[in-house]
Write a structure and sequence with these properties.
The radius of gyration is 56 Å and the shape is elongated. Helices cover about 70% and strands about 0% of the residues. It is built from 29 helices and no strands.
């Protein structure tokens, strides 16, 4: 569609909309017949309105056309003027090209003009130049005598004279060739700079004097504050002159020599140097640094920092302008100097005790009222505004380093303590006893005390370090208990080689057991049940479990000693001599009671545990002896005799256990009596009922165990065995949660090969 067609469509659309609007308006006005009388009035009003709109449109269009005509006339005039300028520039370029030859012949005159300008400058400056050497000497003498303000006035006169001469020499005349001008100006400037070289030296000498006053500002402010005030005034003047020079246009070719001087910046640098020298004092020898020497050094540093800041606030601050913010500036200087010094100390290979001294000083002493929080300083120093004395990442590194050092020290100490403890176990001397007469081993308590002391020491430096050291202590306590179990194993092996050595073998085992029992009461502090810190919730050893393992290891070694003595006696049970008459059980009881004499040196909880384990061991050995026996009852009389002997043994063992202090034999006697019922039964057909009761009482008993017992009875045929096994299989039960298995620990001899003789022939 063309643009013309689009315009026609837009016009038709606009006309249609207008007609629709007019129709809507007319229908609203002439909705009743009586309103048609006013039709002529509305027609005249709308005609006048259309005429007014048309006249305004014509007026606007006429103004627009007049403006366009005026703009076109202005463009024609500008075009004409641009053409005239182009013609003029072309003529000027032609004239410039034709004038290069004559201009080159004027070069000697240009050079003479330049020399004339330079000579005129020198002649005008001669009266002042003659006085320069004298004025330099006078100024140097004023500096030596600390007449600083007068010296600075003379210095400014000399610098102004030098700068004025250099500026006038380096000005370029618009009628002089610039390349020759620059060359001659450079030669003249070099000559002037050589002549005025003493002025720059004088400026540097005055600066050194001012900065030396700054480095010893405290002593100067105390003895002669006027000199320090004069130095500050000079520095302020020089700072103002530096600022004035920076306000010039950047394209300016010439700048005064030695600007900017930045004397205020150098003043603070000198002041900081003096502060550092006064604070650090004598160098600390870091080789073989111990905690005592470092503590003395840090206390001296603390006193020097406080004294420095107090002196600055009271003596030095009134001598400088307020906008110097001297109190905060010197506080930052002390802060940074102390930080760098501590960084140097911590970069050495320090023992953990020395490192703790540094960390305690950083975290506790430094922000306290004894140092940066001192009442005399608190009004001027914003401690958080100074920033951390040690960056967070470096502090984190030092805390980890301290923790590693503590752990290494604890590990080394525990190893040595265990070596000493093990050597004590081998000596021919009875272990120490406590107030209750129980054998005592101080190893565990010494280790725990060592660990707790380190944790408490770390807690004074915050929860973060406390948790780190607590974790490290847990791991080292775990290692200690592991090493203790390994030492007990070695101890048991040494005893197995020669049962008479060590002399006090059982005594020291009881001492270890008692030590573990005493240690259990203090573990809760080292390993709380619900740690508050996420850092402490990480996977850490479970000390009660490790402690229980160590205690059980020592207990098992004790019980192994009794088991080794009584096992040969149980080989006689059952046998025909034992059926007839035997003192075997009596001897076993005597050995148990003798063993109980040693157990009496154990603490109450462990003593009861050892008694219970002794009873359990006797029960297992007795049942094991029955199942491993080669005896087979030949008649009902022998079975009754076996049952009676077992009843007598149960009574004898029960009495002995009661004398040993075991309140009621809950394992040994019931087990023997339960097994005795299998042999007391005269009718073999009822064995399935007895076996059912036995399985109910001891659900861990297996088919092999029952078959071994039935083999001992001697009157059980194959069919009856099958019946008994069927009953057991139908009655198989899961072990109750509170049931302690017995028969699992009892091995059953392998069945005889088919070609072997009947077991009765081997009895």
């Amino acid at each position: 569609m063309s643009a013309e067609d689009g315009g026609v469509l837009a016009l038709e659309k606009a006309e249609s909309l207008a007609r629709g609007a007019a129709l809507k308006w007319a229908s609203g006005i002439f909705c009743r017949p009586d309103q048609l009388a006013h039709l002529g009035h509305y027609r005249r009003r709308e005609t006048q309105r259309n005429n007014s709109i048309q006249s305004r449109l014509k007026s606007v269009l006429q103004s627009y056309l007049e403006g366009v005509e005026h703009g076109l006339s202005q463009l024609r005039m500008a075009y004409t003027e641009v053409r005239h300028v182009q013609q003029a520039l072309s003529k000027a370029q032609d004239i410039w090209r034709t004038g290069e030859g004559p201009r080159s012949r004027l070069q000697p005159i240009h050079q003479l003009v330049m020399e004339h300008v330079q000579l005129s400058v020198v002649i005008q400056s001669l009266p002042y130049i003659y006085t320069v050497p004298t004025l330099i000497d006078q100024t140097r003498d004023l500096i030596d005598h600390h007449h600083l303000l007068k010296a600075h006035v003379n210095l400014r006169d000399l610098e102004n004279l030098r700068d004025d001469v250099l500026y006038r020499l380096q000005r370029v005349s618009p009628f002089v060739d610039s390349s020759h001008c620059v060359q001659h100006s450079a030669e003249a400037a070099d000559l002037v700079q050589q002549f005025f070289a003493g002025v720059q030296d004088l400026s540097e000498e005055l600066g050194r004097t001012l900065f030396s006053l700054a480095s010893s500002a405290l002593s100067v402010a105390s003895s002669d504050p006027a000199v320090l005030v004069s130095a500050i005034r000079i520095i302020e003047r020089e700072e103002f002159l530096d600022a004035e020079e920076t306000r010039g246009p950047p394209q300016q070719l010439w700048k005064p020599m030695g600007r900017p001087k930045r004397w205020r910046e150098q003043f603070f640098q000198a002041l900081e140097k003096g502060v550092c020298e006064r604070l650090m004092g004598s160098e600390l020898m870091c080789d073989n640094l111990n905690a005592k020497d470092l503590a003395i050094h840090l206390k001296e540093l603390q006193d020097r920092v406080v004294a420095e800041l107090q002196s600055v606030f009271s003596v030095l601050a009134p001598c400088v302008p307020p906008h110097y913010d001297l109190c905060r500036a010197v506080a930052l200087m002390c802060h940074h100097a102390t930080s760098h010094h501590l960084h140097d100390i911590l970069s050495q290979d320090l023992p953990h005790s020395t490192m703790y001294c540094v960390l305690h000083w950083i975290m506790i002493i430094y922000p306290s009222e004894d140092m940066m929080g001192h009442p005399d300083l608190s009004s001027e120093i914003d401690i958080p505004g100074l920033g951390p004395l040690m960056p967070p990442e470096m502090m984190e590194e030092q805390l980890n380093r301290y923790t590693r050092s503590v752990r290494a020290c604890l590990s080394q100490w525990i190893h040595k303590a265990l070596e000493v403890e093990y050597s004590d176990w081998l000596r021919d001397q009875e272990p120490d006893t406590d107030q209750d007469g129980c054998y005592m081993s101080s190893l565990q308590q010494m280790v725990m005390q060592m660990l707790l002391e380190n944790v408490q020491l770390a807690s004074s430096l915050g929860e973060s370090l406390e948790n780190r050291v607590r974790n490290a202590s847990l791991y080292e306590m775990e290692n200690c208990l592991v090493w203790l179990r390994e030492a007990l194993v070695r101890y048991g092996i040494e005893h197995m080689k020669d049962r008479t050595y060590p002399t006090y073998y059982m005594h020291y085992l009881l001492a270890v057991v008692n030590g573990c029992s005493a240690l259990s009461s203090s573990i809760s502090y080292l390993q709380p049940e619900e740690p508050s810190s996420p850092l402490f919730r990480k996977a850490v050893p479970c000390l009660p479990t490790s402690l229980n393992k160590a205690q059980k290891k020592a207990s098992h070694l004790l019980l192994d000693e009794l088991q080794t003595e009584i096992q040969p006696l149980f080989r006689e049970i059952p046998s025909r001599p034992w059926l007839a008459s035997s003192d075997t059980v009596r001897v076993i009881c005597e050995k148990m009671e003798n063993f109980n004499q040693y157990l009496s040196k154990a603490r109450a909880p462990v003593f009861q545990y050892l008694l219970a384990q002794t009873e359990r061991m006797i029960a297992i050995e007795y049942a094991k002896a029955l199942m491993h026996s080669k005896l087979v009852c030949r008649s009902c009389g022998e079975r009754q005799q076996l049952a009676e002997r077992m009843s007598m043994d149960a009574e004898q063992l029960g009495s002995s256990l009661h004398r040993m202090g075991l309140e009621g034999a809950t394992v040994c006697v019931p087990l023997i009596l339960s097994l005795q019922k299998l042999f007391a039964l005269k009718d073999a057909a009822l064995l399935s009922l007895e076996v059912s009761e036995l399985v109910t009482a001891y659900p861990d008993i297996s088919d092999e165990h029952v078959l071994a017992l039935l083999e001992l009875r001697g009157d059980v045929n194959r069919d009856l065995r099958h019946t008994v096994l069927s009953v057991m299989q139908s009655q198989a039960l899961a072990l109750p949660e509170d049931y302690r298995p017995i028969f699992i620990n009892i091995s059953v001899p392998a069945p005889a090969h088919p070609f072997c003789l009947h077991p009765s022939s081997c009895a």
